[in-house]
Design goal:
The protein has helices spanning 11-21, 29-42, 91-105, 120-128, and strands at 2-5, 45-52, 55-66, 73-82, 111-113. It is an alpha+beta fold and 142 residues long. It has a five-stranded mixed sheet, with helices on both faces.
């Protein structure tokens, strides 16, 4: 398995993960492509993929953020998905470790992420990786 920066040619695989593993059936591959291009143009986003035998089996996306109350910049994981048949085989933890290594190299003090209430298996996974539940995420759809 190889962890590397996502390329345009990987978007079809990332799209399948978003649609099938994260459960966003209304999203299109073109939507993912446009968002990926925008993320790349802004410079504070990063998308990594896990590749096995030429197939995308996982991805993780992050954004560098800054706030008034946190000392310096920090990373927020905004997407993580692993193909069902690769789950529980170290793909997700390897992707997280790659992000953590980069965060340490850039001297970020914290990594944050949100996970839907219904994703209880994901919560167990994050806790096993050393992440702590510290807050709720609130949304208001406009």
């Amino acid at each position: 398995m190889i962890i590397r920066k996502c390329e345009l040619s990987d978007i079809a695989g990332v799209y399948e993960l978003i649609k099938n593993e994260l459960g966003y059936p209304k999203i299109t591959e073109n939507d993912v492509l446009k968002r990926f291009e925008l993320m790349n143009s802004l410079g504070n986003y990063n998308v990594l993929v896990a590749e096995n035998d030429g197939m995308i089996c996982g991805f993780i996306s992050t954004v560098k953020e800054i706030s008034l109350e946190v000392d310096g910049e920090f990373l927020r994981v905004i997407g993580l998905a692993v193909k069902t048949e690769y789950q529980r085989n170290g793909v997700g933890s390897t992707l997280l470790r790659a992000v953590e290594k980069s965060a340490i190299e850039h001297k970020f003090g914290v990594i944050t992420l949100s996970s839907n209430f219904k994703r209880t298996e994901a919560h167990k996974f994050y806790e096993k990786q050393g992440y702590q539940k510290t807050s709720f995420t609130f949304k208001k759809y406009l």
